[in-house]
Structures are given as structure tokens and as C-alpha cells.
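By convention, the C-alpha cell line describes the chain's fold. To illustrate:
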Amino acid sequence: MKKGGYVAIYRSVWDHPVFQPEKFSEREAWMWMIANAAWTTMEDLRRGQIKHSERFLARRWGWTKSKVHRFLNRLREAGMTEPASEADMNHLTICNYEDFQGGGTITEPPSEPKYKNREEEEKKGRKDAALQAAIEVPETEDAALYRRGKEILGSSSYGSLITRLLRAKNGSVPLARSALELAATKHDPKTYVFGVIRGAEELATKAHPLGERGDDWA
């Protein structure tokens, strides 16, 4: 492996969700300074310059302020940085910045990859599901009854059975739903529903022995 050369690393690596927040090593602090230096002239910064207070750097790197102060002094003494302003010691120039960036002048920073954050994706999925549920038309009691009937009784002729069950319960959806849920606990739900319907029909026959039931039970 060659000792020389360099590799390009996206700035977003410092906040990548896969890495746990922890104190920077001195090498990482130096790399962070290079990565966060101005890549082009902006406001009071020229390309390769950085301007942050020691208090901010201490918080960002997980160091004490005195450690930051000593580290920055060592960088200046080693010729790795130099003051960009005599009036502001927080304004630094990264020496040899062009060498670290491969030389030449760039017009814009390269686009960064979109790192996938599972927690954020799951949160977005929950929001999308909640939004979809909010805009959907609420299911009516009747529709819910027939849907549940299909689940319990199967897709074959469940519709006519639910209709007859409703008649047996005098059109009461809650009573029909209660009977249906009870049927779901039985070994043969369809046979149970048939029994409920027959029982209701027999009661109706006894109540109207002379055929005065009308056509509802036809």
C-alpha cells in the first residue's frame, strides 16, 4: 500500500448516523478542520480558511477549551495553519490546503451521497401511513360487516349469508357483527351462522303462524 496520495471523503461523514458520537482524536480534529474549511471565497473567508471559536471547537470535538487552545498552538508552530487575521485568532488558514484538495480551483463542492437512516425512513413511513389514513374515506359499519364476513366465512356466498344474518337481527349491524364474531370462535363458523338464521326464521314463523310474515323471509 502506498503511503502517499490522498482520498476524497464527504463532509457528511462527521454526522453519519452509523457512527456513535464520541471524542475526536487529534488526527480526526485536523481532518475535520480541512473538511470544514471554506472551499471557495465566501463572506470574510477565502478558500482554505476556517473561523470557529475555541469554545465551539471544544464542543464539536468533545474536548476541553484548554486542550483545543494547546492543539491549535501546536498546529501553528508546526506550520500546518497560520493566522488569517492578526485581530482575530479564531480566523485560520489551512496551509497547503490546495495539496489536500488535489490542487486546482473548483467551482462547487461535489454532491454528496444520500446516506440511508433507517430510523428516519421508518418515521417517514409512519407519517405517510397516517396521512393516507387521514385522507381515506372512513369505512361504513355495513361495509365493515361484509368485509369481516368474507374473512370469517370465506369468499364463497358470504354476501348472501351476511344479508340473511342482518335480516335475522332485524337490520341491526352491531347485533349481526356480534353474532359473526361469535361464529369466528366456532369450529365451523358457517354452520353456526346458518343456525342463527334458522333460529330467527323459526321464531318468526311461530310469531306469524298464518303466513303474515310478509316477503322478507322469502
In short: Strands lie at 49-51, 81-83, 91-94. The chain has two domains: 11-105, 138-207. The longest strand covers residues 91-94. The two ends are 90 Å apart (CA to CA).
